[in-house]
Structures are given as structure tokens and as C-alpha cells.
Amino acid sequence: MSGFDLFQPVVDSPDFSVVITFSQSISQWVILIVAGTTALILGKSHVSPSGKPFRLIYLLLLPAWALFALSVWEGVKVQRHFLALKILAPADTTGIKRGINHDLWWQLRLMEFGLGVVVAFLVCYLFWWTFSAEAASDRS
User: Fold this and answer.
1) What pTM was estimated for this model as a whole?
2) With 0-12 CB in 10 A as exposed, 13-18 as middle and 19+ as buried, what is 50?
3) Angle between helix 93-131 and helix 61-87 axes, rounded to 10 deg
């Protein structure tokens, strides 16, 4: 049978499974960070600015969430490459390795950029929390 055959032997690639596990862990961390920042916005257990100018710092989370979503998407692409490697025999392992490397690199970079934006949000919030009279009165 030519072309795609489900009954051909699967390419054994244990070294790729480590990369896939790493990609999955990045996606899991990203989902946890998005959940945590969402809980921060919706929760009432922290001191929150009441003035509109200071509440605008929460808008910094929008680009962070977008970067995190793109990071998860790159993780999905890594999974697709891995599935192609496992299902297609004979597979273009060199091309698949390049694809996995490229997409994993972008997944990690996008997560790092998203974390950078979350850190910028936290620094702004920390400055407001430290120097704002409103925050000082809410703390006491």
C-alpha cells in the first residue's frame, strides 16, 4: 500500500518524548498563570485601586494573556509535529525535528514575554500599593 498506512511500524523516538513533556509543562504553567491572574482580577481578597488611572494597570494583563495564548498555540504545534513523527513512517525526521525546535523555541519565548508583562504589572501594582494613600488606608 502506498502513502499513508496505519499498520506501518511507529518510529521509536524516546528522545522526542522529553521535548514533548517539556512543551506540555510550559503549557500547564501558562494555564496556571492565566488562572491566577484572572483570579486576581475577579477576587476581592486583595487591595485594589479604586481610581480609574490606577486601575488601568490591569490592562497590562491583556497583552500577557495574548502572549500566553500564543505560547499554548505553539505547544499545540509541537504536539502536532510529534504526532506526525509517531504516525507517519517513514517520516521526515529532520524536518520534524526542525519544526519541533522552532515551535518549542517560540513557545518558550512567548511564555517569557508574557511573564515579563506580568512582572511589569506586578511592579506597577507594587508601586501603587507602597506609595498610594488609598492603599495605605485599606491596609490599616
Assistant:
1) 0.81
2) exposed
3) 160
